[in-house]
Every structure is written in C-alpha cells, then in structure tokens.
Specification:
With 221 residues, the protein is mainly alpha-helical. Helices cover 43% and strands 0% of the residues. It has a domain of 150 residues. The longest helix is centred in the first third of the chain and has 18 residues. It is elongated and about 80 Å long. The chain binds heme C (HEC) (5 copies). The site of one heme C (HEC) has 20 residues, from helix 3, helix 6 and helix 8.
C-alpha cells in the first residue's frame, strides 16, 4: 500500500478510537505537526504575478479574484479572463508605453505595441500573437500556477464557513497584499486549526460568539 493509503488508514483508525475515548482529545490535539508541513513554501510561479502590486498598490479586493472563498469550499484561482479585463489593453508597464509614445511622436510614426516579457508569457499561453490577435499556430491553454497550500486529503477544510464567520484572509494567509510571491505563512497543522477553534469558542470572532467544533469528524470525514 502506498504512503498516502497508509496514512489515511492511520487517521481513520485513530479518529475512530479516540472518538470512543474522548478523554484523550484535549491533550492529543495540542501539538500535532507533521514533519512534512510546508510552512514558508514560496514556489516560483510560471508568470511573475505580484500580489503586492495588484492587491496592495492597486488595491484590487481579494474576493474580486477569489470569490469562491465567500461561497464555497475553495477560494479558487482566477482564469485569464479576469487578467485580460485589464491586460487586453495594458500590455506593459506604463512607463515603457509612455517612452515608446514619446519616441514615436519624435520620429513622427505610429507607436508600436509594447509587450512586457512577463505579460508575453500569458499572451503566448492563451494563444495570442504579438498584436494580441488569436494565433492559429498556437493552442490556447488555461493559465497554470504552482499550488502553495496543500492540506492532506484526509482533512476537510471549507473557506466559506470561515470567511462568512468573519475570519480575515490575513489571519490564515498573512499579509498577502505585501507579497511579491505568495508564501505559506501558517503551518497548517492540526494544532493550528484546533487552537483557533478553541479560542473562537472562548472569545468569539470580532466579538461575535462562534461555535467552532473540535470534534474529530468535523475535520476528518
Ligand atoms: C487580480 C487577481 C488577484 C487578486 C486581487 C488577489 N489574488 Fe490571490 N491569487 C491570484 C492568482 C493568479 C494566484 C495564483 C498565483 C500565485 O500563487 O501567485 C493567487 C494565489 C493566491 C494564494 C495562494 C493559493 C495557493 O496556491 O495555495 C493565496 C493564499 C491568495 N492568492 C490570497 C489572496 C489574498 C488574501 C488576496 C487579497 C489580499 C488576494 N489573493 C488577491 C490572483 C489574485
Ligand atoms: C481559517 C483559515 C483560512 C482563511 C480565513 C482563509 N483561508 Fe485560504 N486557505 C486556507 C487553507 C487551510 C488552504 C488550503 C486548502 C486545501 O489545501 O485544501 C487555503 C487555500 C487557499 C487558496 C488556494 C486555492 C483553494 O481554494 O484551495 C486560495 C486562493 C486562498 N486560500 C485564498 C483565500 C482568500 C482570498 C481568503 C479570504 C477571503 C482566504 N483564503 C481565507 C486557510 C484559510
Ligand atoms: C484591475 C486591473 C488589473 C487586473 C485585473 C490585473 N492586472 Fe496585472 N497589472 C495591472 C497594472 C495597473 C499593472 C502595472 C503596470 C505598470 O507597471 O505600470 C499590472 C502589472 C502586471 C504584471 C507586470 C508587468 C511587467 O512586466 O512589469 C504582470 C505579470 C501582471 N500584471 C499579471 C497579471 C495577471 C496574471 C492577472 C490576473 C490574475 C492580472 N495581472 C490582473 C492591472 C491589472
Ligand atoms: C483563525 C481561526 C481558525 C483557524 C486557523 C481555523 N478555523 Fe476552522 N473555524 C473557525 C471558525 C470561527 C469557524 C466557524 C464557527 C461558526 O460557524 O460559528 C470554523 C469552522 C470550521 C469547520 C466547520 C465548517 C462548517 O461547515 O460548519 C470546519 C470543518 C473547520 N473549521 C475546519 C478547519 C480546519 C481543517 C482548519 C485548519 C486547516 C481550520 N478550520 C482552521 C476558525 C478557524
Ligand atoms: C479543526 C480541524 C481538526 C480537528 C477538529 C481534528 N483534526 Fe486531526 N488533523 C487536522 C489537520 C489539519 C491535520 C493535518 C496536519 C498536518 O498535515 O500537519 C490533521 C492530522 C491528523 C492525523 C494525522 C497525523 C499524522 O501524523 O499523520 C491524525 C491521526 C488526526 N488528525 C486525528 C485526529 C483526531 C483523533 C481528532 C479528534 C480528537 C482530530 N484529528 C481532530 C485537523 C483537525
């Protein structure tokens, strides 16, 4: 049996046993942290998309691109259409476009379309040519990104339950709006989840009382 299968069996068995003997619960849940947790993981992405620029400087709301976070289990990653709302026209940093415009005026010609190397990767990927027209020699493909956060398959997590009860994105993900490249800030350990649930039950979230379960089956079913 493979590694994942083994672990899944262990979890199912432990959950079953401990549910029967819930005395163990409090001491058990405090410090579980697997050695393979990826805290600090900061993978290089295929396109150097910056949260610092878009969510920080430009102030685009998190939910504009991750609207799933409010309504469903997954926050979701936006498709290229969302990017193209701006980048169909905005093809390079404004200073570069302006420099070309100035030069064109001086040379009495039409300005050329300036495409930055980083955005060119996106246009290539979605099958556009250097004039941003569909290129018949290219197959349009969806953007792909390296996943930063990964919970094991035997844990169920639901964004909307958290976001709707008033937990901020930043509480779990850190100050993403300052990150050039997204990094896993929390360790995503069981202790991390359970400690917040206990704290929420004691103190509420932003003053509103919450009932965040610490039952094994809530997170492992
Ligand atoms: C303009 C669209 C856009 C906005 C606005 C945006 N994001 Fe993202 N987000 C993305 C894209 C694209 C990715 C995938 C590439 C990457 O990881 O940088 C991503 C990835 C992430 C990830 C990592 C997902 C994983 O793989 O585990 C987190 C966490 C995240 N965003 C949180 C936020 C938060 C919090 C905000 C608001 C402060 C925000 N995002 C605003 C587009 C956006
Ligand atoms: C209670 C903690 C918590 C809060 C609050 C939270 N997240 Fe997450 N987020 C996680 C965890 C845990 C994962 C990994 C989920 C997995 O691997 O199944 C994740 C994954 C993601 C991903 C990767 C894609 C996905 O859906 O799995 C994105 C994007 C993301 N979060 C964005 C956001 C944004 C935007 C907000 C605020 C609107 C937010 N998160 C609020 C804990 C949180
Ligand atoms: C609301 C408009 C808007 C949206 C939506 C948007 N961007 Fe941007 N993006 C900008 C602006 C403005 C700049 C900065 C231009 C400048 O430097 O003058 C920029 C810059 C960039 C750059 C850097 C370009 C360079 O070479 O310096 C990349 C890469 C990029 N965006 C990718 C994306 C991706 C991928 C998405 C979708 C997930 C996206 N953008 C969504 C407005 C947007
Ligand atoms: C920062 C605090 C915080 C963290 C961290 C956190 N949670 Fe929660 N969780 C809550 C709150 C608050 C609720 C909602 C209670 C309510 O609805 O009143 C909740 C609810 C839940 C629920 C019940 C959802 C439902 O459908 O009712 C599950 C399952 C859950 N969390 C799993 C997790 C897992 C798994 C993790 C870790 C990966 C985690 N949580 C981390 C605060 C947190
Ligand atoms: C609030 C959510 C939550 C609750 C409640 C919870 N767990 Fe977990 N559990 C997790 C997360 C998240 C992980 C994954 C941790 C990691 O990968 O570091 C995990 C991992 C585990 C593992 C695997 C450890 C390993 O070394 O592979 C076992 C076993 C486990 N939980 C048993 C339980 C039992 C028994 C209970 C009830 C007493 C329980 N869990 C309650 C979130 C939870």
């Amino acid at each position: 049996m493979n590694w994942f299968g083994n672990r899944l069996v262990t979890v199912v068995l432990t959950v079953a046993v401990l549910m029967a003997a819930s005395v163990f619960v409090t001491s058990f849940t405090n410090n579980i942290k697997l050695p393979d947790n990826n805290q600090g993981y900061e993978p290089v992405q295929p396109i150097a998309y910056s949260h610092r620029l878009h969510a920080g400087e430009l102030g685009i709301a998190c939910l504009h691109c991750h609207h799933g976070a409010e309504r469903s289990k997954s926050a979701g990653i936006p498709s290229a259409n969302v990017c193209m709302n701006c980048h169909a026209r905005l093809t390079a940093p404004w200073v570069n476009v302006k420099a070309e415009d100035d030069l064109a005026t001086k040379e009495k010609r039409k300005p050329r379309l300036i495409i930055s190397p980083e955005l060119k990767k996106m246009y290539d990927r979605i099958g556009l040519d250097d004039n941003l027209r569909p290129d018949s020699t290219k197959t349009p493909l969806p953007l792909t990104w390296m996943k930063v956060h990964n919970l094991p398959g035997f844990v169920s997590f639901n964004h909307s339950a958290h976001v709707r009860s008033g937990v901020q994105c930043q509480t779990c993900h850190g100050a993403v709006e300052t990150m050039e490249r997204v990094r896993q800030v929390s360790d995503l350990s069981m202790g991390w989840c359970v400690n917040c649930h206990r704290d929420a039950n004691r103190n509420g979230i932003n003053g509103t009382p919450r009932n965040a379960s610490t039952n094994c089956i809530v997170c492992h079913h």
